[in-house]
Design a protein that fits this description.
By secondary structure, the protein is mainly alpha-helical. It has eight helices and no strands. It has two domains: about 150 residues, Orthogonal Bundle (Lysozyme); about 50 residues, no CATH class. It is about 40% helix and about 0% strand. Helix 2 packs across helix 3. The N and C termini lie far apart (about 55 Å).
Length: about 230
């Protein structure tokens, strides 16, 4: 059966990031960006996210494109010796990917207020390729060359997401985590921070205390603390 590029996402952000992190626990979480930007264009952000998993090797970037490029679908990486496009932010990279999908899927103009951020959008128009691939299966040989079964592989990844629970299990109300046995000295402090709502851990009930604190995580903690102080 053909799988439309346009439409409403059918899996949750939780299913998307859980599917990715089951393979790559250190992958960043841009699932909500995919859903939000996809909704802006009427493109299924959940399938675009599956495409990013396929293109980046579960966000491990095993090809020529590097993480700092914020290029999650190989835009412009037309040969194995070409690095492809670079975007200033993850949001711009995701919008460019979804915009390129939009260009293939429909001949409609961009949504009101949207600016061209896909460096290859004009190429689609010049080559008469706007609207030639309204389904993922029709991207075979177009997005990737030769690209045999390209769309089917992406749909298969999406089907794996759809089999996961749609929402996370309820977190223990006392701030417990499943993996604090190796940091018993820190456990009471971690539990207290969780009880105060400063930290939330991961969807699988772990805190992963051995992982280095990222800038994004620190920003989230400081934001939660600021809101707590306002109460």
């Amino acid at each position: 059966m053909a799988t439309p590029i346009m439409g409403t996402a059918q899996v949750s952000a939780y299913q998307m990031r859980q599917f990715l992190r089951n393979v790559n626990p250190d992958a960043p979480d841009y699932s909500s960006l995919y859903l939000d930007i996809g909704a802006k264009y009427g493109v299924r952000g959940d399938l675009a996210f599956a495409q990013s998993i396929h293109e980046t090797g579960y966000w491990q970037f095993t090809g020529t494109v590097r993480p700092y490029q914020n290029n999650f679908a190989g835009l412009g990486a037309v040969r194995s010796d070409v690095q492809g496009a670079t975007f200033a932010t993850p949001a711009l990279g995701i919008e460019a990917q979804i915009q390129h999908l939009y260009g293939y899927a429909t001949q409609m103009p961009l949504p009101a207020g949207a600016k061209v951020v896909d460096p290859r959008f004009g190429i689609l128009e010049q080559a008469g390729l706007r609207g030639v691939a309204p389904t993922w299966e029709q991207l075979n040989g177009k997005w990737a060359v030769p690209g045999t079964a390209y769309g089917q592989q992406i749909v298969s990844l999406w089907q794996g997401m759809a089999q996961l629970p749609a929402t996370p299990p309820a977190q223990e109300p006392d701030g417990s985590f499943l993996d604090l046995k190796d940091v018993l000295w820190a456990e009471p402090f971690i539990r207290q921070a969780a009880e105060l709502g400063l930290i939330h851990g991961y969807e699988d009930g772990t805190y992963r205390p051995a992982n280095p604190l990222t800038r994004a995580e620190l920003a989230a903690i400081l934001t939660n603390l600021k809101e707590k102080l306002r109460e």
